Amino acid sequence: MSNKLTDVLSQIKHQEFATRTGREIHKCMQHIVISSEQTSGDADLVAKISQNPKLARFFGPNAKTEVPIAGIVNNRFISRRLDRLVVAPEQKQVYVLDYKSDTDKTALFDKYVAQINEYKSLLRDIYPGYQIMGYILWLHDFELQEI
């Protein structure tokens, strides 16, 4: 087999593994709740999340997971599903979190920024007068990045 074909097959195998792993961790992340009264979900993930105090707001009992959202952005109808959504009415703030399992944060970064900005645009229509903040949680190192 030629080196080029071997490289292509290796890349496909790597992408399939990354996609499968991403789906599995997304599913586990849906069930995590961390609060003083209740902690549930995968213990290893809870431990990783608990190490970063800035992540706490996204995994409290009031956080919503897999939230469907739809509307018009740039004269185009879009329908999306938010990984995590937290609404803080007393502060008039909304936080949206999207998980990414990429190990190369730069490869699709512009695409991800556009995605978060679409979410923020849709949320501004739903929550007028609220400050809307978007974040990416890089699952390979649990770095939280504000967009």
- Determine and state the CATH class: Alpha Beta
List the strand order in the largest sheet. 3-4-5-6-7
What order do the helices and strands follow?
A: HEEHEEEHEE
Q: Which structural class should the secondary elements be placed in?
A: alpha+beta
Anisotropy-based shape:
globular
Number of helices: 3
Major sheet attributes? 5 strands, mixed
Please compute the radius of gyration using only Cα atoms. Answer: 17 Å
Rounded mean pLDDT is 87
How far apart the termini lie comes to 44 Å
Number of individual domains: 1
CATH level 3 topology: Lambda Exonuclease, Chain A
Poorly predicted regions: none
CATH architecture: Alpha-Beta Complex
**How much helix is in the residues?**
25-40%
Q: Report the portion of residues in β strands.
A: 25-35%
State the total count of DSSP E strands: 7
Protein described:
With about 150 residues, the chain is an alpha+beta fold. It has helices at about 5-30, 45-50, 110-125, and strands spanning about 35, 40, 65-75, 75-90, 95-100, 130-140, 145. It has a 5-stranded mixed sheet with strand order 3-4-5-6-7, with helices on one face. A two-stranded antiparallel sheet has the order 1-2.
